[in-house]
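This protein record is not my work; I was only asked to verify it. The record follows directly below this note.
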Amino acid sequence: MPKVAILDDYAGLALDLADWSPVQTRSEVTVFDRHLSEAEAAEALRPFDVICPMRERMALPRTLIERLPNLKLITIVGLSLPNLDMAAASDCGVLVAHSDFANPRPRSVRDATPELAWGLLIATVRNLAEEHRRMRDGGWQSTTGMTLAGKTLGLLGLGRTGRRMAEYAKVFGMQVIAWSQNLTEEAAAAAGARRVEKVMLFEESDVVSIHLVLSERTRGLVGEAELALMKPHAYLINTSRGPIVDEAALLAALRTGRIAGAGLDVYDIEPPPPDHPLRRLSNVTLSPHLGYVTREMLGAFYADTIEAVVAWLDGTPIRIANAI
């Protein structure tokens, strides 16, 4: 029977959130509930015909793909996977099947990331993580938070998630400004925001929240110069992708008090090493890439994965993203 690997199921819920029986009756399914290093993956995944990663949790470079001689299909969530070497997959004769994003998702799925982003924003400006730690240790309040009403939220990116953030901000009585390379004044106004230039966004915002796709033009977009423009009492929130922010510059700004704090759900390396300096700063609120991690959203992702695997088992693969 074909062997199918479900990767990085950290919560151990993959088999519960979707009906895998059409796959399980025709193949041997194995769930990996922890992150594998490349060396571990090369050994553990060697027997498998199909691997099903969850977003970017597992990198699939050429150096790994070429060490998996039995691999025939990779399923991905989304239309592409930044840390998958598509050319290597094609060179090795491995099909890559993407998710069905042509179908509209219910709001319970679409709102997962902006809801997490707004929760992280509130937790950050009210120092909830630090105060939680103090309460757990038997202490009491020691920090002072910031009221959102009357403040300015700066959105880097005004796509689906950014637009939802603008709606939340209005409910909280905030002014909203936005910038991205292609954003027009008309599009910003339609979303309830005012378009400004990038420099002005960092200068005027009390909270800057990032909602851009990682690409060559957004990698390192927020660096030392941008952080230097921010108000000393301002906060940076990143629920998009870690490399959009220059990590070294952010660490320096946080350590010196150049900005008040940061709320981070994404990192350059995921998961970050146990001794990563971000884990030790009291003015940082951290979450482990939870933006899309809800039962509803994961269930939708796995349903698409199952459909793709079944189609491959039937000999009629669907939604193939690469050329073989």
